[in-house]
Design goal:
The complex is a heterodimer of chains A (about 425) and B (about 1100).
Chain A (H helix, E strand, L loop, with lengths): L1 E8 L4 E6 L9 H11 L8 E3 L4 E7 L2 E7 L5 H19 L4 H6 L1 H11 E2 L2 E2 L4 H7 L5 H10 L10 H4 L15 E14 L5 E15 L5 E6 L5 E6 L5 H7 L1 E4 L4 E10 L9 E9 L5 E10 L8 E8 L4 E8 L3 E5 L4 E7 L8 E8 L12 E8 L8 E7 L6 E15 L2
Chain B lengths: L3 H9 L5 H6 L16 H8 L3 H16 L8 H5 L7 H14 L4 H5 L2 H7 L5 H13 L6 H12 L4 H17 L4 H12 L4 H14 L11 H7 L5 H18 L7 H13 L6 H13 L7 H10 L8 H14 L2 H4 L1 H9 L4 H17 L1 H4 L14 H14 L5 H12 L4 H17 L4 H11 L5 H15 L7 H10 L6 H13 L7 H12 L5 H17 L1 H16 L4 H14 L12 H5 L23 H5 L35 H9 L2 H11 L9 H11 L6 H14 L1 H25 L11 H18 L10 H24 L37 H10 L9 E2 L9 E5 L7 E11 L7 E9 L5 E10 L5 E3 L4 E4 L4 E9 L7 E6 L4 E6 L7 E5 L2 H10 L5 E7 L7 H11 L3 E3 L6 E8 L5 E8 L4 E8 L2 H16 L1
Antiparallel strand pairs in B: 1-11, 2-3, 3-4, 4-8, 5-7, 5-9, 6-8, 9-10, 11-14, 12-16, 13-14, 14-15, 15-16
Helix pairs in contact in B: 1-4, 3-4, 4-6, 8-9, 9-10, 9-11, 10-11, 10-12, 11-12, 11-13, 12-13, 13-15, 14-18, 15-19, 19-21, 22-24, 24-26, 25-26, 26-27, 26-28, 27-28, 28-30, 29-30, 30-32, 31-32, 31-33, 32-33, 32-34, 33-34, 37-39, 39-41, 42-43, 46-47
The chains are: A alpha+beta (about 425), B alpha+beta (about 1100).
Chain lengths: ~425, ~1100
């Protein structure tokens, strides 16, 4: 399946290669570079490239291209999903998935890749298993290892590999047993020029941080489970229980993981917590334009909207912008033409406003389209869909865990057309 | 001492290897010439006793590999650490080994014994990783070892090891595809495995090795369906894809009744809007004729068990289920996948890209499915262009009369985007909507016409092209638009657009009679500056105008044609010449002239604007081939539904035990039991599909005899009525049925031949199995087995024999040097017994060829049991074979032969003594005969014979040289030099010569044999020919084939021999057990499996002669 993997940085250096079958020459990446050049933009590089002898399937994560070489038919998503899993694992191990982190830990990276794939077929991708096989680097461990001469590599088969709960390691022990759930909801929306909602839906996830000893069996129930329209589960969740009782019943992995992700259907009306008043215009035959944007809260259920950031990709003809903000600060990058306005918290009494003059390239035709505004915001202690966790029960262990649920609403792909 | 310094140091060039390496181009191959000392420090560290130093060195080496730097010259130094105690060092050595073994095959062989030991380790992780590495080093010579190891591991206690065995199968297959048949046996065995851990991996192996053997799946189908949800996610993808293909061959199309309806709907949509009520009636009639469709319960089982996986977090799994539903589910149920696919659109952009491609294909076939999610495909300005274009494609596919207004409104926003490629695609999309949906055609056209005044030329050009296509559908009503477009010729510069406008005007010049000649006039003026496609259209326009309005345009046409006549482009010149002949009537012009008008102004069919994703669904969705819209290497076609369902009973899992004494009454009882309702409940609940009684097969037998051949459940109802009516008939059929069952049983038996039989098979079956086994052996020796009873059996045994034949072919190749006929037996004095001191006439040259330290180091890797002190014996030999080294003709009169004297080589007990006989058949004296430039493969050593000063004509000289073959049958290559010539020669030892006899007692022998079981034991059955049944003959043949010593033995029908390999001193124990008749069983126990397997071949060959 996956023949080889090349990691390539933005400047086109191949800084890591790994082969699971016979060695494939680096020159195969030339086809990739060719495609990359053609695409201009990094995100427009086609994920699948066909070359005379191989197929290249690549992903772009954190300024690194993961380019895998394929020789025979394989579902492309299989490879893409796997590559993302590799990137996730690096992130998990080194805290970041950057070129420097990978270079600094090249041996661990190699050991990981060796364990994750056998002959191009995924072997162990579950982070709990990997961590038993290869311990993540920490300063303390490296000191201990250099003194005692012990190694980072485990010599027994991780118990998870054999059990039917491969995600959990055995013999977990904590002094404080805790289980935290973060219900995070993101609003995806497209708002049209007049302020009416073209499209809106809520995408939610429940991220968990479980630090419980032994083999706890948890069940989490909701006040209003019917809200969830479409759900995808971590493999630990017992599907049958959900089908019949709408209860999440599972033996959790140890540590941080995503329990479920869900969608609240677009049929339900989605309350949009902010509104944007905008006036952007470019004058014909003059090298300037006007820009005036106000953001205000709407239906926020008594919670404050905070962390508001607006980013705008201005047309190419824009040279510079001289604006003044009543709140927060703005930056305009004349190279990428991106305007970023960091607003912060919105107070209904004094609505934040950004206005001023746009300088255009003289002689160039006026931009036809007004740029669309991308808004980010956060509302603490609110799940906009109204989803509420009812209770969490634990079976199988005797101790009493500390439980906590946190709600947060964020803007997802929130776009205002102007 | 974490990994961090490793990379840094390397990079910083703090050590000696820093700088030179950077300037060095690994491709130039200069490593060996210029600075071969580069890695000396690393070598030193690897040689040290401290694990920490070794680890450090290995980390630096792995860092080099990771960056694609060549580290192959460190191979010997690294490989000897393969047995290192430190697990991390060991793992890194494995990484290194897998990377470079292919390049340094012979050195890699030295590590094999470590893995072989690892395969027997009590720790399953070590067993598994030994197998993993063993199967990952791509060295063809170890194929038999790998095969054995895989077979062994396939029946390991630990499912993890079995999983690794499944992974190793495709590796071995890619190394040597001749092993296919044996591998299929292993796959079959592993497919029957009940653990989820193995399931995914073995199906992966199945897909890579034998995807065409769909028959292997039957018995495991229900089990796979039931296990699916618990298999790890990657395995799920592979299994689902495979089951999709399987289901397509085994079940009937669930949509066969709907297919007609669907066609109709399509027709109504794409064609005119007129209703075709009469068609509907006809269709209803045809529907009535059809049999009602009932889904096979196994088909249902698959759909039911895959559905929950739509909730997987893994996009690949979701996609796999989606394609399964798309290809297999009844139309009404396909809808469930839409929601899950739409969910994937929130994922990474690469995932979006792939999912959208598939959604685009699906949305053509099943539009209704995605309509509720229309808005999820709306485009954001921040989407990458490739995603935008795909979303657009989906939106266009989803457009219908009810939602077109929303979609068009959305499109309006897109047209103003800054991304011009996207805008162009949007215009195309509008064009497609307009052609597909008659209602909005005018609106779209108006919108597009407005775009003609857009400032962006690309937008205008794209609009022109689309408008041209739209106008072709109804030109009469749109002369205004054509006029408008005519005006555009002044401004638009994009050639494609200009060409389109000219074509339009020419085509519809009758609608714009006043403008057309004027346009031609303008174009004539600028003709020379136009692009080629525009020029062609100008000529076209001129010709059309000449035909319709020759009065106004005659001169212009002449002018244009004249210009074109001298154009640089030959196409244009040709076209001009051709058109002139056609339209301008001259005396010479032929009959075609009359038809010119018809030729040019014929009614042309309007172009159909189709999605590029149309008909892509003949590729399995979600596959690479589908994405590329081209068949990828290794793509398995998705078969069409069969017209008649194949026998569903093949999936019934039978109880392995079968007793022949089935009572007929009993059987009859079973027959009456309804089978499907049973299995439905049972297989749904647990995986215990195999607990179903034989009733399944029985029933199917009876049902086939009852004459109806259509799908099972339908019969079921009839069954009971029929049962009584046909009972007499049936009893007649029973004989026949019995036979059938027997055959099926036999098939069963042959499938289970590889794993030792599951239940407690009846004696007869055992016998049969035994016979089969021996038959295989016979076939192996190239003999005909007895007459086969069933065709299935024949094919399996045949194929397996062909597999092993080709395997042995390779072995025999190595022994290609045939014994020369004139070889007289050479008596070697028994006085040499136990003589280790070198005889004086053979001085040892001081220049050693390879650093001996390496060899001794490597030697240490193979641990032989030191408690045993076997005594080397002088050979108890029969005849000594002589091999030709240099033929008289090739050697220009110099003939050289060699034989293995079977004496310990004086001076070095690890060398094999080779006696060389040189005879000078020339007329002249040959001087300075010597060995030069030995090119031993790594690890091999050659001790040359002392130079022969001169050899008189007709004289013969005999010398002895020593070669350390490192216990491999690789040839030793060197040059034989005379004072005038050099001859390249090579000595290839038969495996039997790589050992020296050992004396041991019977008890010792048994003790050692006890230690060398399992993987190290190779057993072969053979038949002794008549002349070779006496004690003497057997001993003679065995000792002639191999240099072994006889071990005393109590039993009269058993012969034992012992030897140990010359280089490493590993024991080789041979047991030959003579049985009644000519049968015999040969057992070889040796740590060195290569040697063992080859020796078995050699000895059995010798005995067969």
């Amino acid at each position: 399946m996956i023949h080889s993997l090349f990691l390539i940085n933005c400047s086109g250096d191949i800084f890591l290669e790994k082969h699971w079958k016979s060695v494939v020459s680096q020159s195969v990446c030339d086809y990739f570079f060719e495609a990359q050049e053609k695409a201009i933009d990094v995100e427009n590089v086609p994920p699948v490239i066909s070359t005379p002898h191989h197929y290249l399937i690549s992903i772009y994560r954190d300024k690194i291209f993961f380019v895998s070489v394929i020789q025979t038919e394989v579902p492309p998503l299989f490879v893409i999903e796997f590559l993302h899993r590799v990137a996730d694992t690096f992130q998990d191990y080194f805290g970041e998935c950057s070129e420097t982190a990978i270079k600094d830990n090249v041996v661990i990276v190699y050991e990981l890749l060796e364990e994750m794939l056998d002959n191009g077929f995924p072997l162990a991708t579950e982070s709990n298993i990997l961590k038993e096989l290869i311990k993540p680097p920490t300063i303390l461990r490296s000191v201990v290892n250099s003194i005692t001469g012990s190694s980072n590599v485990g010599d027994t088969l991780p118990t998870g590999q054999l059990s039917n709960i491969p995600w959990r390691r055995a013999g977990v022990k904590y002094t404080n047993n805790e289980a935290y759930f973060d219900v995070i909801e993101e609003i995806d929306a497209i708002i049209d020029k007049s302020g009416s909602t073209v499209f809106a839906e809520i995408q939610g996830v429940i991220d968990s941080c479980i630090k419980l000893s032994g083999m706890p069996d948890l069940s989490l129930s909701f006040m209003n489970p019917r809200l969830l329209d479409d759900v995808s589960f971590h493999p630990c969740i017992r599907f049958k229980r959900w089908e019949s009782e709408r209860v999440l019943s599972f033996i959790p992995p140890d540590g941080n993981f995503r329990l479920i992700s869900y969608r609240v259907s677009s049929q339900n009306l989605v309350a949009i917590p902010v509104y944007v008043k905008h006036m952007i215009s470019f004058k014909e035959n003059s090298s300037s334009g006007r820009f005036d944007v106000t953001i205000g809260p709407k239906q926020n259920m008594g919670k404050t909207v905070e962390g508001v950031v607006m980013t705008v990709h201005m047309p190419k003809a824009v040279l510079n912008m001289s604006l003044s903000a009543t709140q927060g600060s703005y930056t305009f990058d004349p190279v990428t033409k991106v305007l970023t306005w960091d607003v912060g918290k919105i107070t209904p009494q004094k609505l934040p406003n950004l206005k001023g003059i746009v300088n255009l390239q003289s002689g160039a035709p006026k931009p036809e389209e007004n740029p669309s505004l991308n808004i980010q915001f956060k509302i603490q202690q609110l799940a906009i869909s109204g989803l509420k966790v009812n209770r969490l029960d634990m079976y199988g262990e005797k101790y009493k865990p500390f439980k906590g649920v946190k709600y947060i609403t964020k803007a997802g792909k929130f776009q205002v057309r102007t | 001492m974490a990994a961090s310094p490793a990379y840094g140091e390397e990079k910083g060039g703090s050590s000696s290897l820093g700088e030179p390496e950077y300037g060095h181009d690994p491709a130039s191959g200069g490593i060996f010439s210029s600075d071969y000392k580069r890695h000396d420090d690393l070598k030193e560290m690897l040689d040290s006793n401290k694990d920490s130093l070794k680890l450090e060195a290995m980390k630096r080496i792995v860092a080099m590999i990771a960056r694609g730097k060549n580290a192959s010259d460190l191979f010997p130094a690294v490989v000897k650490n393969v047995a290192c105690k430190n697990i991390e060092v060991k793992k890194l050595v494995y990484v290194y080994l897998v990377r470079y073994a292919e390049e340094q095959q012979d050195l890699a062989l030295l590590s094999i014994s470590t893995f072989q030991r690892g395969l027997k380790d009590p720790n399953q992780l070590i067993r598994a990783s030994a197998l993993r590495v063993l199967s990952s080093i791509r060295v063809p010579i170890i194929v038999p070892i790998m095969m054995l190891a895989i077979k062994e591991a396939a029946s390991d206690m630990s499912p993890y090891v079995r999983k690794t065995a499944a992974h190793a199968i495709p590796k071995l297959y890619s190394l040597d595809s001749d092993q296919k048949d044996q591998l299929i046996e292993v796959i079959e065995k592993l497919l029957a495995d009940k653990t989820t851990l193995v399931a995914g991996s073995v199906v992966m192996a199945f897909e890579e090795v034998c995807p065409e053997r769909i028959d292997l799946i039957h018995k495991n189908y229900r089990k796979l369906c039931n296990l699916l949800i618990d298999v790890e996610e990657w395995g799920q993808v592979v299994i689902i894809n495979m089951l999709t293909r399987y289901a397509r061959t085994q079940f009937l199309s669930p949509n066969q009744n709907e297919s007609l309806l669907e066609e109709n709907a399509e027709k109504a949509f794409y064609g005119s809007e007129e209703e075709d009520a009469k068609d509907a009636k006809a269709e209803a009639a045809s529907l009535a004729k059809r049999k009602p469709y009932v889904m096979d319960p196994d088909h249902r089982l698959l759909l039911r068990n895959t559905k929950p996986l739509l909730q997987s977090r893994n996009a690949a799994v979701v996609m796999a289920v989606a394609q399964l539903y798309f290809h297999l589910a009844p139309k009404a149920e396909v809808g469930v996948i839409a929601k899950a696919l739409v969910r994937l659109l929130r994922s990474h952009s690469e995932v979006q890209y792939v999912v959208l491609q598939n959604v685009a294909t699906m949305s053509i076939k099943r539009r209704g499915m995605f309509e509720p999610y229309l808005k999820s495909f709306y485009i954001r300005s921040t989407d990458p262009t490739q995603i935008k274009i795909l979303k657009l494609e989906v939106l266009t596919n989803l457009a219908n009369e009810t939602n077109i207004s929303t979609i068009l409104r959305e499109f309006q926003t897109y047209i103003r985007s800054m991304d011009k490629d996207f805008v162009a695609a949007t215009i195309q999309a509008i064009g497609r909507c307009a052609t597909n949906i008659g209602k909005v055609r005018d609106t779209c056209l108006n919108g597009l016409v407005q775009l003609l005044s857009n400032r962006d030329e690309l937008v205008v050009a794209e609009s022109v092209v689309v408008i041209k296509k739209l106008l072709q559908m109804q030109p009469a009503q749109h002369s205004e638009i054509i006029k408008h477009m005519a005006k555009l010729t002044d401004n638009i510069q994009v050639p494609m657009a200009r060409a389109s406008i000219l074509w339009l005007i020419g085509e519809y010049c009758e609608h714009v009679p006043k403008i057309a000649p004027d346009v031609l006039r303008k174009m004539a003026k600028s003709f020379t500056n136009e692009e080629d496609i525009v020029k062609l259209q100008v000529i076209n326009l001129a010709a059309k105008l000449y035909l319709t309005n020759s009065k106004q345009s005659k001169l212009l046409t002449q002018y244009v044609l004249n210009l074109a006549k001298y154009d640089q482009n030959y196409d244009i010149r040709d076209r001009a010449r051709f058109i002139r002949q056609l339209i301008v009537p001259t005396e010479k012009s032929g009959a075609l002239n009359k038809y010119a008008k018809k030729l040019f102004l014929a009614q042309k069919p309007a172009p159909v604007l189709e999605s590029s994703f149309k008909d892509r669904d003949h590729f399995q969705l979600g596959s690479l081939s589908h994405l590329l819209n081209a068949k990828a290497v290794g793509y398995q076609e998705l078969p069409d539904w069969p017209d008649e369902a194949p026998d569903p009973s093949v999936r019934n899992v039978e109880v392995p035990e079968w007793t022949k004494c089935t009572i007929r009454e009993k059987r009859k009882e079973k027959v009456e039991k309804p089978f499907y309702s049973d299995s439905e409940g049972e297989s749904g609940a647990t995986e215990s599909a195999d607990s179903e009684p034989e009733s399944g097969s029985e029933e199917s037998g009876s049902s086939s005899s009852s004459g109806s051949s259509s799908s099972g459940s339908e019969e079921e109802e009839e069954e009971e009525e029929e049962e009584e009516e046909h009972s007499e008939e049936q009893s007649e059929d029973k004989e026949e049925e019995e036979e059938k069952r027997l055959k099926r049983k036999e098939k069963e038996g042959s499938r289970k031949a590889a794993p030792r039989s599951v239940g407690s098979p009846s004696e007869e079956e055992e016998e049969e199995e035994g016979a089969k086994k021996s038959k295989k052996k016979k076939a192996l020796q190239g003999r005909k087995g007895r007459a086969e009873t069933s065709s299935e059996e024949a094919s399996t045994s045949e194929s397996s024999s062909s597999g092993s034949d080709s395997g042995s072919e390779a072995e025999t190749k190595r022994r290609k040097a045939p014994p020369s006929s004139k070889a007289g037996p050479k008596e070697i004095s028994l006085l040499d017994l136990d003589d280790f001191t070198p005889p004086p006439p053979q001085p040892i040259p001081s220049s050693s060829i390879v650093s001996t330290s390496l060899v001794t180091d490597l030697e240490g890797l193979t641990l032989t049991d030191t408690s045993l002190t076997p005594t080397l014996l002088s050979p108890a030999f029969g005849t000594v074979k002589t091999y030709e080294l240099l033929h008289r003709m090739a050697g220009e009169g110099l003939a050289v032969e060699y034989c293995f004297s079977r004496r310990p080589f004086p001076g070095d007990p690890h060398m094999v003594a080779v006696q060389i006989q040189i005879s000078n058949n020339t007329d002249a004296e040959v001087k300075n005969l010597r060995v030069s430039e030995p090119k031993p493969l790594s690890g091999m050593r050659i001790q040359e014979f002392p130079e022969i000063e001169s050899l008189a004509p007709g004289d013969t000289a005999s010398v002895v040289m020593g070669i350390d073959f490192c216990d491999s049958t690789q040839a030793a290559n060197f040059q034989l030099c005379t004072h005038t010539r050099h001859f390249y020669v090579s000595i290839q030892p038969p495996v039997g010569e790589l050992m020296a006899p050992v004396f041991m007692s019977e008890n010792e022998f048994k003790k050692e044999q006890g230690k060398l079981t399992g993987m190290s034991e190779i057993t072969e059955k053979l038949t002794l020919p008549e002349k070779c049944r006496s004690d003497h003959a057997i001993v003679q043949q065995v000792t002639s084939a191999a240099n072994v010593g006889r071990v005393p033995c109590g039993a009269s029908n058993e012969y034992r021999f012992a030897a140990k390999t010359v280089t490493s001193g590993s024991l080789v124990l041979i047991t030959l057990e003579r049985r009644e008749g000519g049968a015999a069983q040969l057992t070889i126990n040796s740590e060195k499996m290569v040697i063992g397997t080859m020796l078995v071949k050699d000895i059995s060959q010798a005995l067969a002669q």
